[in-house]
Amino acid sequence: MSPTPQPKPPHSQTNADTPDQGGGLSVVQYWAEQTLAPAGPQLWQTLMHKSACLSCAWGTGGQKGGFRNELDESMQRCMKSVESIMAELMPAVPPQFFETHSVAELQQLSSMAADRLGRLSVPMIRRAGRSHYERISWDEVYAIATAAFQKPSERIASYSSGRSSNEAAFLLQLLLRTLGSNNLADCSNLCHAPSTVGLKEVLGTSTSTVSLEGLKQADCVVLMGSNAPYNHPRLMNELIKLRDRGGSVIVINPIMEVGLVKFGSPAFPLKSLIPGSDISSHYLQPIPGSDVTLLTGIQKALLECNQVDWDFLKAHTEGWEAVVEQARSTSWEAIAQGCGVSQPEIEAAAEIIGNAKRVVFAWAMGITHHANSVDNVWNIVNTALMTGNLGKPGAGVMPIRGHSNVQGFGSMGVTVKLKQEIQQALEKLLGRSLNLPPGYHTRDLIDAAEAGQVDTLLALGGNLYGANPDTAQAKRALGNIDTIIYLATKPNPGHFHGLAKTNTIVIPVFNRFENPHKTTVESGNNFVRMNDPGQTHLKQADLIAEITFLTELAHRLLGDDPVDWRKLQDTRYVRQLIAKTIPGYEKIAALDDGGEEFTISGRILTQPQFKTPSGKAQMKLTPLPDLSLPDPSHFGAANGANGLVLALITARSYSQHNTVVYKEGDRYRGMPHRHCILLNPLDASRAGLAEHQRVTVRGEAGQLDGVEVIFGAVRPGAALMFYPEVNAIFHAKTDKRCGTPGYKRVPVWVEGKR
Ligand SMILES: Nc1nc2c(c(=O)[nH]1)N[C@H]1C(S)=C(S)[C@@H](COP(=O)(O)OP(=O)(O)OC[C@H]3O[C@@H](n4cnc5c(=O)[nH]c(N)nc54)[C@H](O)[C@@H]3O)O[C@H]1N2
Ligand SMILES: Nc1nc2c(c(=O)[nH]1)N[C@H]1C(S)=C(S)[C@@H](COP(=O)(O)OP(=O)(O)OC[C@H]3O[C@@H](n4cnc5c(=O)[nH]c(N)nc54)[C@H](O)[C@@H]3O)O[C@H]1N2
Ligand code: SF4
Ligand SMILES: [Mo]
């Protein structure tokens, strides 16, 4: 393998506040500060509690204890876990707060300010025409909710966010389906749905084909569209170990994220923490949205240097001829121009992949947040198949999942596209056919609500208002729904802007580590964890367990049809139902009788046998995307105005969890506050914009003024701003096959005053 020089962010491009590595001592400092904070003892009690980490789906904790992963390795907690726990350990919002602050006042709160109010602690309602939320009795909650769910089944819906348990997810879908509705919108529709939909079609499975153990055997990882140092920090340790054993990491990302170049991990205090460990061996910065083209280039280079595994293609795949032909016949000029990466850079990446024995292709939102997201996933699979890197130990495809139990929600059937096996099992349980009309995924739900076609919505967590593109549309849509019932641990702007036409109810729930009963979650690596019961620090609060609310509502609506819903308030019986109905989950029933946490069967592929009708992997031809951007006039820019049209990446800062902002700045990108745009200095000078100048950023749905220009190592033609604030200004093109918005390629006009 030819050695490639270690990439470094070009200093001319980053700003003076960008550190030279990710992670590092500041992480340890954060742990120390939180440990010494008043809630420090509670933090440590929670960290030691046997429950899975709240934050990301990499998965840590559970039966094995707070710091252990599925392979029983210790020291597996990152500071993001601490961040999410500390937010939950806040005191309750004082009960009189909502009586003295009108909804209009609450709407002025930023996401961070809303979260800092504290924990929700009593059920509340905002009635039509009233200016304030007020406390409501449980009897009235159930009376309103029961009446609301007696509406026609096509007019009722749910939305869910992946922090709740498998048990709550299973009950939610069972309730909606028993009522005759498939309208099970979920945050995964805005997230990894392209991976789920794409992988299912070509491999017959919809999650990672690689286990944590498998990842440890890989000698190359291709990391695409993931900012793991921010969002999946423990994955960084696997990359460090991979580099230590001589393996390679190819990073594909339009932004040179400092932590993907060098990362100081507290898990290796002497070797890595202060000096930092090299992460990427090779760093490619393509045009946002051009990954299909870049991958076609990698395939072309593999063909040209004879590194395609023909025997594998012929024996284990179908449709390879067309994919190979596209790579062969597309010119290098078209590829280099289409993705903005030069032929030699692409060839160097292909050489590393071709020479490696076991390659894992891993990806996150930079791949899925595009109008052609399913194509992105398919062309990753194509590349893995062309090199024989699927269906063998230590190799495969790995969507890096988001919320800590988002994958569990999909497994439990919270989806508008129910797997046939689950449908059949549920039909047996219900004793009736489940041929329900197609349901609304999240974007369809918003459109249907806007059109006045939804009466009732139950939101199990999340921030439907803030997570969608075009928040003004989301607000209008939610305002057309008669009754909305939010179940949440913390207040967020969605509760203040996402008001229903008649009744908006907010129900305070126990979080994972407080739940009075056992629950389970599923990690992105297909491992099922058990959470022990816990206690809340909110002694005066009137919280409810999600499953208690769902089963009680179901009982009032359905009596004992098709199950004794109240009996399911003991989650052991929910697990028995899951074992009977959810493929791969057979072992969950034994968890209550001393059984061990387990890897879901049938998911990890160590043999090239695929769950497709022919048993072979299906290769799909993926058209090269057209990435043209509109003219300035499209945004109403005056002739000769001082600015430029860019492809805007909307993503997470270092200190936020999705729509919840924990801290103003992003220290690793050198962005001092939320109201910044990260620009390449070359673009800035092309448009006559200076660093720290305030500009207007205009999308197709609105504009933000006074945005500060920050220089960074983002490739020319692209820029970055933070979600959820930026969601106010754009509509997003969605991939029709999965409904996922193109959040990572938002056309915008950036204008500075002369
Ligand atoms: N601390 C923390 N952890 C989290 C979350 C959180 O908000 N905070 N959120 C959780 C959730 S729900 C999710 S989905 C994940 C999100 O995890 P990520 O997917 O890592 O999050 P994003 O911030 O959306 O960043 C995506 C990366 O994709 C790159 N990118 C943008 N466009 C393209 C492109 O066209 N091609 C390629 N190859 N790359 C591109 C961006 O530059 C960025 O580095 O993290 C989960 N974990
Ligand atoms: N522009 C842009 N938009 C995006 C993205 C992007 O990258 N760019 N990312 C998209 C992605 S990947 C995702 S996943 C979505 C996220 O969308 P959502 O999942 O809808 O949003 P979150 O911010 O994760 O929801 C946080 C809220 O969940 C509630 N909560 C927390 N824990 C619990 C619990 O245990 N139970 C209950 N009932 N409630 C709880 C709290 O009230 C908290 O305020 O956003 C999407 N939107
Ligand atoms: S990597 Fe993810 S699951 Fe593991 S401790 Fe950090 S936030 Fe939690
Ligand atoms: Mo996500």
UniProtKB/TrEMBL annotation:
One Gene Ontology CC term in the entry: membrane
Domain Molybdopterin dinucleotide-binding as annotated: residue spans: 646-747
Zinc-finger listed as a keyword: no
Compositionally biased intervals (Pro residues): 1-10
Region (Disordered): 1-23
Gene3D superfamilies: 2.40.40.20, 3.40.50.740, Dimethylsulfoxide Reductase, domain 2
Top-level taxonomic group: Bacteria
Residue ranges annotated for the Molybdopterin oxidoreductase domain, each copy included: 119-486
Keyword Hydrolase: no
SUPFAM superfamilies attached to this UniProt entry: ADC-like, Formate dehydrogenase/DMSO reductase, domains 1-3
GO MF annotation list: 4 iron, 4 sulfur cluster binding; formate dehydrogenase (NAD+) activity; molybdenum ion binding; molybdopterin cofactor binding
Pfam families listed in its UniProt record: Molybdopterin (PF00384), Molydop_binding (PF01568)
Keywords linked to the UniProt accession: Iron, Iron-sulfur, Metal-binding
Stated name of the protein: FdhF/YdeP family oxidoreductase
Source organism (scientific name): Thermoleptolyngbya sichuanensis A183
